[in-house]
Amino acid sequence: MEPLSPKEIERLIQKVLEANRDTLMRCGPRGQYQIKATIDGGVYVLGLNNGRAGQFYPPNKPDKVALRPCQRILT
C-alpha cells in the first residue's frame, strides 16, 4: 500500500464522518469514541476526542476491530 497524501487522508476522514452522521448527531462533540467505515474497499477507523480527530488508521484485521463506543454525556 502506498502512503496517502494529506488530501487523500482528508477525503477519507470526510467520508468516515459522512458515513457516521447519525452516530455523530447522537454522540455529539464531547467525549471520546471511535467510528469506522468501509471506503473504496478499505476499512478505516477514526477516533474522536472532544470533537477532534485523535487517530485515523486502517486496522490490520478489520473484522476484529473493537470500537470504543460513545458514552452520552448528560449535563
Give a description of the structure:
With 75 residues, the protein is of the alpha+beta class. The chain is globular. It is 28% helix and 29% strand. The model has no long low-confidence stretch (mean pLDDT 88). The protein has one domain (6-59). Strands 1-2-3 form a three-stranded antiparallel beta sheet, with helices on one face. The chain starts with 5 loop residues before the first helix and ends in an 18-residue tail after the last strand.
Keywords:
globular, 75 residues, alpha+beta, 2 helices
Number of domains: 1
Q: What are the segments in which pLDDT stays under 50 over at least 5 consecutive residues?
A: none
Q: Identify the strand order in the major beta sheet.
A: 1-2-3
Distance between the termini: 44 Å
Order of helices and strands: HHEEE
What profile does the largest beta sheet have? 3 strands, antiparallel
How big a fraction of the residues is strand?
25-35%
In short:
The protein is an alpha+beta fold and 75 residues long. The chain has 2 helices and 3 strands; from the N terminus they run ααβββ.
Write the layout of secondary structure elements.
Blueprint: H1 6-19, H2 21-27, E1 32-39, E2 42-49, E3 52-57
